[in-house]
Amino acid sequence: MKLFSSMKRIFSRLGPFPEHLFSILVVGVGCLVACEAPSGGPAEEATEASPAAPPVEWALAIHGGAGVTRAGVAAETEPAYEKSLQGALEEGKKILQGDGTSLDAVEAVVRLLEDDPLFNAGRGAVFTNAGTNELDAAVMDGESLSCGAVSGLKTVKNPITLARHVMERSRHVFLVGDGAERFADEMAVDRVPADYFFVQRRHDRWRQVLEAEEEKTASSAAPPALPTGQGRYGTVGAVALDRHGNLAAATSTGGMTNKRFGRVGDVPVIGAGTYANNATCAVSCTGIGEQFIRHTVASDVSARMEHGGRSLSEAAGEVIGEVLNPGDGGLIAVGKDGSISIEFNTEGMFHGSADSSGRFQVGIWAHGD
Amino acid sequence: MKLFSSMKRIFSRLGPFPEHLFSILVVGVGCLVACEAPSGGPAEEATEASPAAPPVEWALAIHGGAGVTRAGVAAETEPAYEKSLQGALEEGKKILQGDGTSLDAVEAVVRLLEDDPLFNAGRGAVFTNAGTNELDAAVMDGESLSCGAVSGLKTVKNPITLARHVMERSRHVFLVGDGAERFADEMAVDRVPADYFFVQRRHDRWRQVLEAEEEKTASSAAPPALPTGQGRYGTVGAVALDRHGNLAAATSTGGMTNKRFGRVGDVPVIGAGTYANNATCAVSCTGIGEQFIRHTVASDVSARMEHGGRSLSEAAGEVIGEVLNPGDGGLIAVGKDGSISIEFNTEGMFHGSADSSGRFQVGIWAHGD
Description:
homodimer; alpha+beta; eight-stranded mixed beta sheet; four-stranded antiparallel beta sheet; 11 helices; about 35% helix; about 20% strand; globular
């Protein structure tokens, strides 16, 4: 029923416009998947309704980007992605189970995904138009609403850790470019040479996109288009609730293949790609960054809960299924009650979730596929 | 009553914490001022209640920053500020009265304020730690939710116009640093040499702050603090409703005096310093950028209206009076019904407002001062 109503929501928005035809194709096999805590709903409510069901003490959700398509990921490589997601989930679980903080958990998970060349963040970052790698990240603490964001990093191995330093060791929230690199000079963070980010697969993809764009420009009088679109983006992220009741969110990305002009996406824009607030939820997004900025997606999920009285599942479902266009992307979220929501309107999203009730699962495609 | 309840809201939040003592002093003479459309409320409601009262066909509010204190602005210079605000308001009024769009109006108003050395934006931008000027701006169209933002510009005379080009002539939303300058190379925008931004008063202020910071660092083992605080920030902005029912918001700034590390404030962060949505309102903020990012201030005003059913005045009052700390800053907003809200929790904010009912006023301090 959930799946049907989600699909109905999507198709009811498509209208007669020709520009939506591509989206229809993209989403033809896509769907939305919303997962609540296995206890059957919010922990507090569950406790009231059934004293036997233990409340969720901690919860964790992770993602590795929503830009994945079956055409782009060969079936034989799926186990490698799943293994990476399981490893990251295991790391976060260990921290949360051992009474660690949600901030430590989301940072550790995102560091692992950044170090993994499979995902578009850290080591596996895509290439810019100039053939460089420029990385963005953000972290937010739901207890204090403190946050830190960095953009345009070129030598920092783990952008998420520098973002946490911005949050905890500066009075600022958002540092970019050479200035952020100078801040990294003053912090004890691992630095790497440019070739650390060289991943053959990413480089090949960049050359393909570059050549396609050049061909397109040569055959047209129009100014060169800025790149966008399906398959060119990716992100990693984690959201967690710890045993102390604190929420945290972290997101990291290499941005969009062949990006130009110092383009910044939604990841370091607090409220767009990353948001956490103990009053509501923690959210990390992935998809076409511009759409997530316009619709302030991460904070809108929180606002619908705080001001509109929606559940996490309702809020996340509305934003991904009604506010955004099919094919735009997805999000992971953990509510203050430990409920988990994983929503995407693309063909797939690398995702995983775990909680204190024993839940531990990873996946790529929508449920049932 | 409004004033009293606003003050009560502020003081009830101060609590026993010593770090609030400074804020108490700052806000001692500050207050909140909320202005509704002179017709006595939302235009549509006014029409129902009294058929004689014409609906508000267009409305405009502008600001020139909330970092202003009586100690910082000599009484004899106040008329110069007021004259500048009147000139900008007049320009916007002319466009809106002549059936122009809200986007054209907010861009034109912000361009004038950028060209005016009195305000911290464009020509009057403050100096960074490196003795340079780095400018940020953002614009948002409430009809389409399209938006454009730029950060770290060094040679663009009118950052707001480049932000509009990002919105209308690129597929992106947010361009920063050298990349944004390269985008400017491809657009027909006015460029200026670095000394265009040299304003003696700003340079003197920067030297003062720089020396104070160096002294502080020399006498302490702590790492150099990133600058923040009262009197070091400023912004300009405009929000408008046009006769077609479309809302738009624009904000521009030179950032924070002596800023380091490529610090980005709230201005180019859509949802923090700038937001517009025809379903609710258009908002432009000014103040301590980090606080406006953490609390996603501009989009929160909209979310409280959209999801919580608040009026513009209630939503803006809650965010400035309850969510933010005293001394953090202020905002201007225009609702979809043409109501205008001007709220600040600092000693003063350069502001102005006009609408089709004949309202035309500028001010610096809270009402009644």
